[in-house]
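Researcher: Here's the sequence for the chain we discussed earlier.
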Amino acid sequence: MTSQPKLTICIDRGGTFTDCIGFYGKPGATDTREFVVKLLSEDPSNYKDAPTEGIRRIVEMATGQKLSRKEPVPTDAIDSVRMGTTVATNALLERKGERCALVITKGFKDLLNIGNQARPRIFDLAITKPDVLQQSVVEIDERVVLLNSAAAIDRIEPKDVPNAIEGVSGEWLTVQKKPETESVKQQLQKLYDDGFRSIAICLMHSYTFPDHENMIGEIARSIGFTHISLSHSVMPMVKIVPRGTSATADAYLTPCIQKYIEGFTSGFDDGFKEGTTKLQFMQSDGGLVPVSNFSGFRAILSGPAGGVVGYSATSYEEGDDPVIGFDMGGTSTDVSRYGGMFEHVFETTTAGITIQAPQLDINTVAAGGGSMLFFKNGMFVVGPESAGAHPGPACYRKGGPLAVSDANLYLGRLLPNYFPKIFGPNEDQPLDRDVVHQKFTELAKEINAIHPNDPLSVDEVVYGFIKVANETMCRPIRSLTEAKGHNTSHHTLAVFGGAGGQHACGIARNLGISKIILYRHSSILSAFGLALADVVHEVQEPCAEILSSNSIPNLQQRVESLVQSCTTELSSKQGFGVSDISHEIYLNLRYEGTDCALMTLKPNDSWDFESAFVQLYKQEFGFSLTDRGIVVDDIRVRGIGHTRSTDKQLTPDHELKTLDIKDVDENAVRDSVTSVYFETGRDDNVPVYLLHNIAPGTRISGPAIIIDATATVVVEPTCTAVITSQHITITVGKGDKKKITTDMEPIQLSIFSHRFMSIAEQMGRSLQKTAISTNIKERLDFSCALFSSEGGLVANAPHLPVHLGALSHAVTYQMNYYGDDLKEGDVIMTNHPMAGGSHLPDITIITPVFDNGKIVFFVASRAHHADIGGLTAGSMPPFSKELYQEGAAIKSFKIVSNGHFDMDGLKRYLYDIPGSYPGCSGTRLLRDNVSDINAQIAANQKGINLVKSLIGEYSLEVVQAYMRHIRSNAEGAVRSLLKKVVTEHKGEALTAVDYMDDGTPICLKISIDEKTGNAIFDFNGTGPEVYGNTNTPESVCYSAIIYCVRCLVAQDIPLNSGCLDPIDIRIPPNSILSPSETSAVVGGNVLTSQRIVDVVLKAFGACAASQGDCNNLTFGKTHESKGWGYYETIAGGHGAGPTWTGQDGVHTHMTNTRITDPEIFEKRYPVLLREFSLRPGSGGDGYHRGGNGVIRDIEFLEPGIEVSILSERRVFRPYGLEGGKDGQPGLNLWIRHVNDKVLTLNLSGKNTALFGKGDRIIIETPGGGGYGAADGEPPCSQNVTHQKPLVVKASGSLGAYKEMQEST
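Model: Thanks. This is the structure I predict for it:
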C-alpha cells in the first residue's frame, strides 16, 4: 500500500500580495498537481496572517476538506513549507524591531550614528538620515592594537614583542587594555535593569581577535539577555561600521523573526514543533535554511531572492545570452542579472542600515505598480514615491493616488473582468475603473491648462506616464549591466511579478533586447523559485595573507576546515547525503593598495586563484595591475545541499526546437476583444486570450493580451509571442514610433531628461571602471557632463557639487580659445583656474561631438588626480602662496590632436614645467596620471557614442530642441522660485555677509525683478584676494550658486545651465572670489566655496549655517623606498532650518566625501584612532537645534610624520538664524610629547607640523547654527521645502554605486 503524497507549499509574502503555490509531486513536472493562491498581504478584517491563510486555502483545495479560520491548520497533509518573507524588511523600513543596545569599544559610542559621514541626498537642505537601530550604547574600556600597519616603514617582529598575539586573519596584535570583568558586569546589568533583552557587541578588530567579544557575551548570558549578537560571529569581516550595523541589525531583527515564527506556527497543529512538517526560510543569498538557523540580518531580501532562483532555473540556458531579471510587483520593481552563477554582493545599505552579509545582487529601481504619478514643473514624473499596499493605487478602492497600475487600467492593459475581485470593504469588488477615469480626466485638464496650444487627449496623457515609467526603470538597468562590463542589449529579459507582463515589451524595446521570457508562473515566480532553491550553509573567516605559492598550502588547510564545517551542518544536522552536498570555495581578493575586493570563485580542479582574479578584475574594470601583489581578505565556503526535485528541463529553448509553430486560430481561441492604447493610438479590436486555452506551439502576433490565472501579458504591435507548455516567449520588433517633432511636449521632455542624464551617468561608470587611482575608482572624486555646442550645461550626473557650474566655464573657455580650430579626433586637457578650473588636481578632459563636420555637443569629465606636482605630495599644500606651488597649471593643451595622443607634451606639462619652479616637483605619479587621463578620454568617447546614438534615434534637430526645452524648464523653475521669494520680501533686496577666519568679508546683495524673475547676485564689498590659498576661482563661485539654487527649488529639476539663466552674477575683479592669474587657490575650492554657500543661504533666510568647512587633514611620511600619505575630510554639524533640526556629524553642502572605516584606517597607517564621536553641545541652541560637530582623536605610532590641517570656522562661528544661536567654532589641538612633558598646543585653522611617536592631533569640528529662538514660537518659512527621503529595499551593487555617487 503506497502512502498518501504530501504537499510542498511555497510562499512569498510581498508588500502588496502574498503568493502561494502548493505541489503534489515534483515542481515543473507534467504530472504534478499544483494549487495556486494569491491574496492581499494585509487584510486584518478577514485574516490575521496572509501566509497562514494561504496555506489553509491550499490544503482545502488539495484535500477537499473545509477548514475553519478559527481552528489551527492541520499539517498532516503537508511535507514542508518554504517561505520568503518581508517581516525583517518591514521591521527595518518601519523601525519596528526589538528594543536593543550596542556594546562598543570606548571612544566610539557615536560611531554608528556618524557612519561614513556622508549625507544621503546632496541637494536636501533638510538632511534626513535614518535612525540608528540601537536605543542605548555602552562603551567598554578595552583596546587591541595591530602590530604593523601596511604603511609602517620600520616593521615590528612579533617575536620581539612580549605577549604579541596572532589573530584569526594572521595579523599580529597586542592587547593594550583588557576589559575588567566587574566593570562590564555592572554596565550590562544596568542595561538589563533598564529593560533591554537584546544586545549587539562590536569591538575594534574583533574580526581577527574575538576574545573580548566572547568574554562580554558570556557575561551577558549569565545576566539573562535572551539575544546576544557578537559581531565576529554575525560577519567576521574587517570594517567596524558595517560589522557593527550588521550585528545591531541582527539584535534588532532576529527577535522579530522569532516572534513572527512563533505566531505563524501557533496557527497550525504541532507538526512544525514536532518536526513532522519541515519549515524552511529563504535567505538573502538565495539559499534556504531551516527555521532554527534563520536570522534577521540575512532575511532582508528573503522574498525577492526566490524570484532570482526562479528565473535562473526557468529562463537561462547554458551558452545562451545572460538574463536580466525584471521583477515588477505592486510596491517595488527589482532588477538582477544571471549568467550561470548567482551574483552576490557583501555590503549593502537597506533603509539606511549598512549590512555585511552575502546577498543576491538585487536592485530596487522603482516602486512597481504603486509608483505614484505626478505632473511637476511642467514634466511627467513617475515615483519614486509609492502608493504602497495601503491605500494602494486609486483603482484599489481605498482612496489612493494615481499610480502606474491605474495607467495600465485606463489604457486597457489591465482588465478588471479578468482580475481577482478582492477589493472593497467585503473583498468582492473589481478594480475601480470609474475613479481612475475621473482622476486622469482631471489631471489631463490640469496639464492642458499649462500647455493650451497643444492639448493632449487623456489617452496621450496616460500613455505618457507609461513611457516615462518605462524610461525611469530602463535608466538604472542600463547602469547595472554596463557597470559590470556587459552590453545591455545582449541579454534576455526574464519578466515576472504581477505587473511585469504589462511593461515587458516596452522595457525590452527601450533596452534593445529582442527576446523576452515569461514563465507560466511569472506573477508568482518568487514563490515558485522557493521550490527550486537549495539549502545553503555558509562559513567565512578573515585573512590577511598575500596570495602566492607559499601561502596556498595554509589557505588549502583553512578551506578544508571550513568545508568540513559545512558538510557536518548539512549532513548531520539537516539530513543531506554526502552525494547531495557540494561546495563553492571563494577567496575575497584585491590588489595591494586598493579597496576593490572581488569575491573570486575557485576554478574547477585548480587552485589558480590568481588567473581567476585577474580575469574577473579585467571583466569588471577593463585592466589589471600586474605590478601589485594580491591580498586575501577573506576565505568563504558556501555549502549547498541540493534539493531540486525535478530533472525536467524548465527553460523553453529545447521545446521550441521540437514544436511545430503555427499562427493562432483567433476565432477559435480568442476569449474576448478589448480596447488598448499603444504608441500609434487606440486599437479597439485587440484580442484577449486565456493562456490555458492556447496550445503549445501557437504563435500570436501583437497586439494581443494573454491572461493567466495571476498575470496579464501585453503583446505590443510588431511583437510576436510563442506559447510553449511552460512559457511565453516574445520576440520584440522595432515597433512603430510616433514621430517626435522639435515642438516641446511634456512627455518627451521627461524622457529626454532621463536620456541626457543617463549619458552623463554612463560616462561616470566608464570612468570609474577604467581609472586606476583610488580618488577616482573608489572615492568617485570626479564629474561627467554633457554640454551644448555653445558650452551650456545640458546634464551633469550628481557627482560633486563643487563641479556643477565650473565645468561649463571650462568648456566655454576652450571654445573661445580655439574658435574654428577644433577638429574631430581632438581632445583638450585643462585645469587652470582662469580657464574654468577649480583647484589644480582636478584635471578636465573636453571632447567635441561632431555631426556632419559641425560641433553639435561637447562632453567633459573632471577628475581629481592623486598628484600633479608642486610643493607637497598630493598637490594640496596648506601654505601655498602662489599658484605654481600647487602643481601643474594648464590653460589649454590638445592632448589628442587628429587622433594622436601627445605623450611628450603631457610629460612636459605635468612633469617638466611644474618641476622647474623653486622648491617644487613635477608630478610624482606620472604613470597613474596617464592611466587616469586615458580613462577620462574613454569616458568622453562613451558619451560621444551615446549622443550619436540618441541623434540617430531622434535626429539632431529634435535632440538639440529638447536640450533647449529642458534648459528652459530648469530656467522656469528657478524664475518661479525667485518670483516667490521677492513677493515674500515685498520687493526688497536680500543681503548677507559672512567672514573667513582671516577677516575677509564675503558680501552679497540679491536684487530680484518681480515681473520677470531675473536676479542680480552682486558680491560687491567682498574682500580682496589674499596672499594665501583661500582664493576662489569664479567658476567655483558659480558652482556654489547653482548648488544653492537647486537646493532652494527643492524639486528634482534637470540640473543644467538653465538654472543660472535668470541670474546675473557680479563678482568684483581681484577679489577673493575672482583672484589674479597667479594666485593660490587650493583652499578656495574646499573652504571658501563653503562660505559662499553660507552667504547665499543666509541671504535667502533658508537655514542656519552648517559647519562651513571640510576640515582637510593630511599626514604622511617621506622615505627613500616607502613614502606614504593620507588625506581625509571630516564631518561637522548641519545647520537647522525652519522645519528641521540640524543633523549631527555629517558632511554638508559642497563636499560629501566618505571617511575611512576605523579598522581600515589602522590597518593601513601607523595610527591609533582613540576617539571618533559627536561633540556634545557644539550645535547652536534654538527652537530647532543645530547639529553637533565631531571629535576625532588620532595618535601616531611612528616618529617623523608630517601632519597638515587646512580648516575654517576656527574664529567666526557658524551663524544661527531667526533667533537661533551660533554653533561652536572648531578647534585643532596637538598633544605633543616634549622630553618628559605633555603639552597641549592650539594648531589654529591652518598649520603643518612634524609629529613624534605618541603625539596626537585632536580635531573638534564646528557645530551647525540653530534656527528660531529656543523659547519662542515655532518658526515658519515659505521659502524652503524639503523632499521626503526615498527608502530603498534592495540596494545591491547599483544602489551602492549610486550612494557613493551622491556622497562624494
